[in-house]
Amino acid sequence: MKICVINTGGTISSAGEPLTPITAAEFGAAAERIIGPVIAENFPRLTIDYETSLTFPESETGTLDSTNLQPHDWCLIARFLLDNYSRYDGFVVLHGTDSMDFTGSALPFLLNVFDEQGFGRAVLSKPVIITGSQVPMFHRAGANGELRVRFNTDAFQNFCGAIACAQRGIPEVGVYFGARLFRGNRLRKVDTSDFDAFDSPNYPPLAAYGIDLELFPEQMLPGPASHAVSLDNPECLALAKANLAAISAAIDNCPVMQFNAFPARYRSDRQSALLADLMAASIGTGLKGLVLESYGGGNFPSGHPDRPENGAIYRAIEQANADGVIVVDSTQVLAGTVDDRAYAAGAWLRAAGALSAYDMTSVAALSKAMILLAAADVNGWSFDTVKRLVQLNLAGEVRNVSWLNSRSNATLLPGQAIMALDGSARLVNDPFAGPLLQAGDGECLWSPFGTPDKGKAGRLVMQNDGNLVFYSDQNEPLWATDTRQPHAASSVLMLTGSHRRGDLLLSMQDYSGGRETARLYDQHAS
Prior knowledge:
Layout: E1 2-7, E2 14-15, E3 20-21, H1 24-42, E4 47-51, H2 71-83, E5 90-94, H3 100-111, E6 113-114, E7 120-122, E8 128-131, E9 138-141, E10 146-149, H4 154-166, E11 173-177, E12 180-183, E13 188-189, E14 198-199, E15 207-209, E16 213-215, H5 234-250, E17 256-260, E18 266-267, E19 272-273, H6 274-283, E20 289-294, H7 312-322, E21 326-331, H8 344-352, E22 355-356, H9 362-379, H10 383-391, E23 403-405, E24 411-412, E25 417-419, E26 425-430, E27 434-439, E28 444-446, E29 459-462, E30 468-471, E31 477-480, E32 491-496, E33 505-510, E34 515-522
Parallel strand pairs: 1-4, 1-5, 5-8, 8-11, 17-20, 20-21, 21-22
Antiparallel strand pairs: 2-3, 6-7, 9-10, 11-12, 12-15, 13-14, 15-16, 18-19, 23-32, 24-29, 25-26, 26-27, 27-28, 29-30, 30-31, 32-33, 33-34
């Protein structure tokens, strides 16, 4: 097995007083000389290559403090990974901690390719593990400044843990830090000085290192549905490279900004507000997206406490949406889900055109929106398509709001629901009546039993054979679509469209076979 170590810079590969970046070649030589025997003793069949050809043109040393990483640098890292994909079984990316959560969020959207429905066309099949440290790995000693390992640092432990994770075949971008492996696009930096500097508030770790490395496979992405969509397939790898080249050429023209809610003056009578002025000024610089870091569960000042639609901030967001600027309603709180229906102070945002981030971090929302906007032209996506994709779960960055996926979240338990992205309808598994497709006002649009009063309690399961089945609490099948395939059929139950627009659709798709298998409710036909 071969693992590639890529050094982008950061504290882990700095040395001296004051700390100064060392070159990737010098770091690699020291790691191979000092740490290599330790790794070889634990993993005797593992070969590690320290690649040095990835350099950042804005830096004299070729490596960068992550404070200075730009979106275009994300693309350089992704291009290196794709160019060397077939040579290695896994990758470790050494990175500074300041923007590690941004890079961890961006790489999954750069390495995978999605179609307009959100299905993978080219899917990552190998581990990409990012790590770094709060304290450098080496220090200089002696008259010649020879690099030696620093005593009792997190750098050595994080590096060894990342190597251990990289040879476990986990098919996603992860960040190993503080004895835990996190999904990269769920990460947040939570401490500036502690060794447990990162956390994943809305998603559990993928692995943890105690005495041994313990993996939690139920938390991991399932990887490609078949070789036909795997990056191990040369055609898919070529597609991913072409997609990345287009994104790289466009990303600087698709800037997205985080915009924090804070107490600021507004005048309802004059329809003016500082936040509205700041938004307009920011958009005037050429921004293509705003990620609102709202209060609490998604509440943002409108500029009018009683009639939001008359507020200056409401009008600023409405105008931004009309001008083709994506606005995503996230939260400045570390953990929890945006629920813009809970309070009137946030319920107005959908009407103004803002999208809900649900439990996606503001960091992931920023990188995701930017990359999807940059990928729009090469994929032929409209503005509305990009907005829909921003809200879908593409690479594990957000909970599945409108899907049941046979390979990840396959089951709808009593009391659970999926919903249309605009909140106009939902499919709820009623604890007494079973699955009910309901409009926003509670009207029942569809039930597998004809009417709600004939339903029963149970669980709805989207199976990997393409069959949607409703089971009783005794595991007895009470209803099924009878769409079972004779082979594996990775499938989703999708609630798409909008009841308000009149195009609501509850349907099933075999995405491994690329075909729709059933329509359970079609508002156009009803």
